[in-house]
Amino acid sequence: MAAPTLGDKGRGKYVAVFLQLGLMRTISAFQDGLYPDMQALADLEIPVAHTIECRARWSMALRDSSASTKMQAFGRAIQTWVCDHGSLRLAQLFACLPRLAPAVARQAVWTHDFKLVGSLHDLIDLRTLPDKLVDMAAQRNDFEMVTYLNVDIGHMGCTSDAMDWACEHGNLELVMYLHRHGRPVCTKNGLFQAVSKLHLDVATYVVEFVQGNDFQDAIDEAINTTVPRTGRLDVALHLISLGARLELYAMEAAAASGQLAMVQWIHANATGDRNDPDCLYAPVIYAAENGHLAVVEYLLDHFCATNGQLDIMYPNAMHAAAGAGHIEIVQAIHRYTNDTCSMTGAMDIAAANGHLEIVQRLHAHRPERGCSQRALDLAAANNHMDVVVWLHHQTIPFTTKAMDGAAKNGHLRMVQWLHAHASAGCTDQAMTEAAVNGHLSVVEWLHTHRNEGTCWYVLDITASNGHWDVVQWFHMNRPACLGSTQLLKLAAKSGHVKMIKWIVAHRIEGCPRCGRLAAEEYRYPVICHILQAVPRSKTRECPTCGTLTDALFYAEKINPRICQGHCRMK
Asked: Which CATH architecture has domain 247-341?
């Protein structure tokens, strides 16, 4: 007997049910895993936001640039996704990937996206986030966003960093607003930044907030390090009236910026022995390096008047001028010396930096005391072909450091020229350094034309630096090149999600627990999640982790010390 079938009318009823708006989305909500449109965001690592205290420990410009680059990359990915799928889908995204909710909130504040901030507040209530969003808005000098977060949303994420940022930007209106609303006042860093950047109205307003040693430290640092660069004598005098202590080392900042009048004033008025040659060494070097001839001549005149010949200061001053390519300063310094002074060091550094004219002039003056081998090696490493060819014609011999250095810096044409014209060759450092710096074309050429090999650590450091294409090349072309148990740890420290996933899938080296602990310490949750799921394997684990029980092996041990130069704004 044939099985019963649905007629067209009955089939239409079932089809209509399954075509109901939202039904398939409701069904899929009960499935494990991620929606296809969220897969790419699952591998998106959350950028680290640095506090002022963290930033001050390292290069300020480097930290700000790095933070901005990472926030922009994260923002592009999120904005593209929102444009494609709409802000209404954010609720589902945060349900699947909860870690993205605060990260997207920070991104919205960073980019002045009021519409997205409002949508996020409706979804997750920004008052519940522990993030310091007011600090971030102040970092961006976004007064409008600060007031919106403070008044419309009532977000309490604010520390003294907010007013410090406002001081640095010279935003008196924002400083006063934060003060009136009872937010934490600035630290000595805020006062220092306000004075250093000549925001005197801000400095006058906040000076009462910074007391005792902090106040003294701020004005002392400003008058000796940043104000001299500006040449603003009026500001320096104002700081002295507040009790700032002017030291002779302030000449260094003034000399580096070519502020001759400021150099002369500091030299005449600062505390210390102005006839001590030690106080002139650094200013002369900074002035010579930055091409400030008048400052160099003033300092050398004073030095020679009180100390006689310049011989003891000559090498560093000449090296600075020659290395920076300031030939008129090279000539000026030479006028203060006798004929017994060596030119070799100056010629070497000029060659290393590609200043052929200076090399030729110094060589013409003292041909019997020419460049050393170091000059040729450094010129090659820095890809100054005209200098290399000229020195080669002077019969200066190469060493292996020439090709090693050129390979390290990715200068393939120089490597090829040295291969053809120099018999010294290279060492295993050539391919190693080319690899760890991501110069795949150099690695491939050396693999084909040389046989020196690589150092044992090449795969570890290359992975740590995120050069995925180079790691893949070694995997395919030099299978005998192995990583150590530190492979995953080093890659995890740098936050390279793609690299971590590839190593787990294609290599047997690298201890997952060491990698996970590094990711926890440096706050990379995606990498933590990936490595937490890696099965145990004696071939992967380091000797310490290999002896642990499963409970200890998989235990989360997040280091409470957030900042080692890698803090997240909390």
From this structure: Alpha Horseshoe (1.25)
Q: Which residue in 242, 196, 240 sits closest to 215, CA to CA?
A: 242
| Number of Cβ within a 10 Å radius of residue 157 | 21
- Segment 148-201, tens digit of pLDDT: 999 999 999 899 999 999 999 999 999 999 999 999 999 999 999 999 999 999
Query: If we measure between CA atoms, which residue out of 252, 309, 322, 256 comes closest to residue 281?
Result: 252
Each residue's pLDDT tens digit, 314-340: 788 899 999 999 999 998 888 877 665
Q: For residues 357 and 214, give the distance between their C-alpha atoms in angstroms, rounded to a whole number.
A: 50
Copy the structure tokens of residue 529. Answer: 């999640």
Q: DSSP of 86-123, one letter per residue?
A: -GGGHHHHHHH-TTHHHHHHHHHHHTT-HHHHHHHHHH
Buried b / exposed e over 51-89, threshold 16 CB at 10 Å, is bbebbeeeeeeebeebbeebbeebbeebbebbeeeebeb
Residues in the chain: 570
Q: What burial letters (b/e) apply to 481-511, b meaning 16+ CB within 10 Å?
A: bebbbbbbbbbbbbbbbebbebbbeebebbb
Residues in a beta bridge with 271: 247
Which class for 207: exposed (0-12), middle (13-18), buried (19 or more C-beta within 10 A)?
Answer: middle
CATH fold of the domain at 459-563: 1.25.40
Q: Are 248 and 266 in contact (CB under 8 A)?
A: yes
pTM of structure: 0.81
Burial class (CB in 10 A: 0-12, 13-18, 19+), 419: middle
What residues does CATH 1.25.40.20 cover in the chain? 247-341, 398-455
Domain covering 398-455: architecture: Alpha Horseshoe (1.25)
Asked whether 474 and 435 are in contact (CB, 8 A), the reply is: yes
